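Customer escalation, tier 2.

The customer says the design service returned an amino acid string that "doesn't look like it belongs to this structure." They asked us to rerun it and document both sides in this ticket. The original structure tokens are below, unchanged.
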């Protein structure tokens, strides 16, 4: 399989429809990379969570999609950036059940669980950046591990 082009796709998040757009763009990028249909669904769900957080807490921001490579591994990187109020206690925000908006409290920890890699940086009054990656599984290594 040929590697996808090395370009970024940006989606501004300012309204609910932008969450849908980001989710669709993420699905397209994940499929272009060759992720399985199940993994494409996981990526889309994680994007929904982080894009919803942008809208709910910062009112506006962006989601940036890019293809990444680490050695022979290929993956999709999803970075969500905002200049909102920031997160005072990242550890607390990453706990299942913690919510500042009367939700179920699975947004950030749920997104982390759905993806292969998850990083969060935040500064109060300056905003938040969430970076997530999903790696293409090597079929040969999966076959070798199952023997």
């Amino acid at each position: 399989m040929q590697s996808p082009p090395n370009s970024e796709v940006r989606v501004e998040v300012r309204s609910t429809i932008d969450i849908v757009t980001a989710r669709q763009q993420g699905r397209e990028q994940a499929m272009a990379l060759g992720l399985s249909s199940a993994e494409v669904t996981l990526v889309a769900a994680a994007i929904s969570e982080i894009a919803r957080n942008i809208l709910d807490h910062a009112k506006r921001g962006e989601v940036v999609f890019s293809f990444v490579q680490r050695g022979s591994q290929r993956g999709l990187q999803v970075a969500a950036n905002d200049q909102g109020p920031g997160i005072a206690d990242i550890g607390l925000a990453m706990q299942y059940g913690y919510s500042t908006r009367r939700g179920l409290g699975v947004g950030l920890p749920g997104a982390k669980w759905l993806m292969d890699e998850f990083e969060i940086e935040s500064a109060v009054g300056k905003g938040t950046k969430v970076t997530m990656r999903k790696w293409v599984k090597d079929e040969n290594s999966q076959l070798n591990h199952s023997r």
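Tier 2 assessment: The sequence is consistent with the input. The two ends are 25 Å apart (CA to CA). Residues 11 and 63 are 5 Å apart (CA to CA). Sent an explanation to the customer and offered a walkthrough call.
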